Amino acid sequence: MHGRDYAGVPYRPARMPVEQSLATAARLREQMWQRRTVRAFSTDPVPEQLVLDAISVASTAPSGAHQQPWTFVLVSDPQVRAHIREAAEAEEHEAYAGRLGEQWLSALRPLGTDEHKPHLTDAPHLVVVFEQRYFLGPDGSSHKHYYVNESVGIAVGMLLTALHLSGLAALTHTPSPMRFLSEVLNRPHNEKAFAVIPIGYPAPDAEVPDLVRKSLDQVLVRV
Ligand SMILES: Cc1cc2nc3c(=O)[nH]c(=O)nc-3n(C[C@H](O)[C@H](O)[C@H](O)COP(=O)(O)O)c2cc1C
């Protein structure tokens, strides 16, 4: 049934009583509906351990062939954050000046975003997520990774969930293009930037766009 390389270990977690499951699921639903993407951060410090724990949660994500094709670069040094902001704002200036195209710009208008990215220096930590498009062997040979985007997307979802449940705010920021991040952070050529995630507490006067989420009925199809 399993290949020659297969080795199993027992997996017998205690089954949660149904009442407890239902209460846990309902509480999680309430908590997760409170999550918002924050773009205005307080400069208050955040214990690094909270971020490390969230990254550790993210790295438990399922991944294609268990290749875990992700690297999380934690940037807390103010000078490096300033460098990233400067490079991101240069790219975003071009993007908002027209590179995105009218359709994309009009989709962004309700979010109130523009080329200014103060969150990159206000938030005390940035996690820059890289996807490993292929694996580099010790001899420099490259090996294919499977389902890289899907795997890294799931890991980032788990990172955002862990940060939110730990009482922190985050932004999923995807400056376009993101090549400058590989240069600033000196990443190897098998890695490609996936997202920059500023992490901290919301600024005291933070606002978020008044968005409406799809209801369960709108996203669920029962067969
Ligand atoms: C893949 C992805 C890329 C995103 N890129 C950006 C971005 O570059 N800048 C930004 O301000 N928000 C970005 N967002 C955040 C979305 O705008 C936000 O999730 C959406 O408006 C819903 O708001 P909510 O997260 O508060 O529910 C991104 C989100 C995702 C999932």
Summarize the structure.
This protein has 223 residues and is of the alpha+beta class. It is 39% helix and 14% strand.
Shape type: globular
| Strand segment count | 6
Q: How many separate domains?
A: 1
What's the total helix number?
8
Which small-molecule ligands are present, each listed once?
flavin mononucleotide
Compressed to H and E, one letter per element, the order equals: HHEHHHEEEHEHEH
Quaternary organisation: single chain
Estimate the helix proportion, in percent.
25-40%
What structural class is derived from the secondary structure elements? alpha+beta
Q: Please state the second-level CATH architecture.
A: 3-Layer(aba) Sandwich
Contiguous low-pLDDT stretches (5 residues minimum) are none
Beta-strand portion reads 5-15%
What does this structure look like?
This protein is of the alpha+beta class and 223 residues long. It has one domain: NADH Oxidase (3-Layer(aba) Sandwich). Helix content is 39%, strand content 14%. The strands form 2 sheets. The protein has a 4-stranded antiparallel sheet. A hairpin with a 5-residue loop joins strand 3 and strand 4. Helix 2 packs antiparallel against helix 6. The radius of gyration is 20 Å and the shape is globular. The mean pLDDT is 96. It binds flavin mononucleotide. Flavin mononucleotide binds next to loops. The site of flavin mononucleotide has 11 residues, from loops.
